Amino acid sequence: MARRTFTTGELADMLKRLSNWGRWGVDDQRGALNYITPGTRASAARLVESGEAVSLANPLGSTPASDNPSPALHLMIRSGRIGHPMGSSSSTDYMAVAPHGYYETHLDALCHFQWEDRMYNGFTLDQIDFRGAHRCAVDTLAAGIIGRGVLLDIAKTRGVNWLEPGEAIYPEDLEAAEQNHRVHLGEGDILIVRTGRSRRRKERGPWDVAKLGLAGLDVACLPWLHERRVAALGCDGISDLMPTAYEAPLRLPIHVGTLVMMGVHLIDNADLDALAERCDSLQRYQFMFVLAPLVIRHGTGSPANPLAIF
Question: What is the pLDDT of residue 86?
Fold first, then answer.
């Protein structure tokens, strides 16, 4: 099937059609998380049978790599018995991390991206200053993201170990995965898309994402996500296809379409290998999903350890 690239004007028109601005009121800062209700959380909790939990996070990346040029800083302040020849002792450490990038598993707050000088719900850029974001910041999610998670394993559905960098995912791929996994994505679900990136990285090593790219969602997936009313979107990449066919300010159209227009929070750089293995062994691709970001006042995002509970 021939694929098309939208013109900048066509893409801009699409984004405006997908807007959720004002849907939950002019002061709303939660966006599509409003699709998650106490009832949907309770339903998600009823999915738990064995109680097994699977982490979807990469370890904190404190070693430089081609896809992690600004690694986290982890220093020991006190180590074990230093200064304590007898009796009790303690160990303490210090950590600093810039979560946005191509390796650290993190949550993007809605303030992370803007388009035409506006962030989600039309809030203006004067709401972001040297102290951080005063609207749509990550501390808005202090109660976390809890709901039904759905894994769509595109690599498995295509019968490959991984999608190659720059390989696109289309709406029909998402629907083929639904059929393969016997699951249907519905309103308020947290969609997790697996490209197989983590497995490729483990077997072949990291690569320069800025040069070689990442597998990800084609722009054509945006209306599909809007129609399904997903609450949040996670991926083992950054959800966006790289390299992109578009230029700034729409260089990453999935980020703009989800964060800015639809109010869909993004979970980037997850490690989905263990989750995929568990879902395959159980033949069950739905689970209770839990993510509690750090409560960083005015923060644009947070390192994250998403959990799937079976």
Answer: 65
Residue 83 within any structural domain of the chain: no
Tokens of 38: 């106490």
User: How confident is residue 109, by pLDDT bands cut at 50, 70 and 90?
Assistant: very high
The residues facing 32 across adjacent strands are none
pLDDT digits (tens, 9 = 90+) for 198-254: 999 999 999 999 999 999 999 999 999 999 999 999 999 999 999 988 887 789 999
What is the enclosing helix (H) or strand (E) of 94? Answer: strand 92-96
Q: Tell me how many domains the chain contains.
A: 1
By the 8 A CB rule, do 112 and 127 touch?
Answer: no
For residue 262, the enclosing domain spans 8-59+101-309
What is the CATH number for 245? 3.50.30.50
**Whole-structure pTM value:** 0.95
Q: How far apart are CA 263 and CA 169, in angstroms?
A: 21
Within-domain flag for 96: no
